[in-house]
Amino acid sequence: MNDKGVATTLDYILIFIISSIILTSSFLVLSTLKSNVKSETKKEVLENTGNKIKDEILEIYLNGYLGEGKVTKELNIPTDASGDIYRVGFDDGKLSLESGEVIVKINLNKIQSSVELDGSFYSSERQKKVFYNGSEIVLR
């Protein structure tokens, strides 16, 4: 009996299965890597944006506190973080930026003990403002 053709067919099937496993593993590793890079990029964008908003909040707080009374300032910030919109608001006395599972909290240098913090907005909104009226800071 001649089994030579059967052995060759089994060799091809084994090579195909091993190649499929390697290819699938490569796709999984690359997709995980891509997801991690996007998440880290989003976090970096949110941190930079949060620091910029914090600076604006501190500026209007000091201007209002030193005599200007009510102060409103329009925020010029990105409309997305890695292609996704994000929410800006206050949480436990900190500035909070959230986009999907990525959450960044920025400390406001203790001004939360002097004034109330209120409001939130989404990055996709046309106008994003921070307002100080002497007793509270509001995001809208």
Q: Can you give the helix content as a percent range?
A: 40-55%
Query: Terminal Cα separation, in Å?
Result: 84 Å
Q: Kindly state the number of beta strands.
A: 7
What's the helix count?
A: 1
Question: Quick one: overall form?
Answer: rod-shaped
Order of helices and strands: HEEEEEEE
Strand content: 25-35%
Low-confidence blocks of residues: none
Mean residue pLDDT:
91
Strand order of the largest sheet: 1-6-7-5-2-3-4
Alpha carbon gyration radius: 26 Å
Which structural class should the secondary elements be placed in?
A: alpha+beta
Largest sheet: 7 strands, mixed
Protein name: Pilin/Flagellin, PilA family
Keywords: Membrane, Transmembrane, Transmembrane helix
Organism: Methanohalarchaeum thermophilum
How is the topology of this model organized?
Blueprint lengths: L3 H65 L2 E4 L12 E5 L2 E6 L2 E6 L8 E7 L6 E4 L3 E4 L1
Parallel strand pairs: 5-7
Antiparallel strand pairs: 1-6, 2-3, 2-5, 3-4, 6-7
Organism: Methanohalarchaeum thermophilum
Protein name: Pilin/Flagellin, PilA family
Keywords: Membrane, Transmembrane, Transmembrane helix
Would you write up a description of this structure?
There is one protein chain. β6 and β7 (136-139) form a beta hairpin. This protein is of the alpha+beta class and 140 residues long. The protein has one helix at residues 4-68, and strands at 71-74, 87-91, 94-99, 102-107, 116-122, 129-132, 136-139. A seven-stranded mixed beta sheet has the order 1-6-7-5-2-3-4, with helices on one face. The mean pLDDT is 91. It has a domain at 3-96. It is rod-shaped. Keywords: Membrane, Transmembrane, Transmembrane helix. This is Pilin/Flagellin, PilA family. The chain crosses the membrane at residues 12-33.
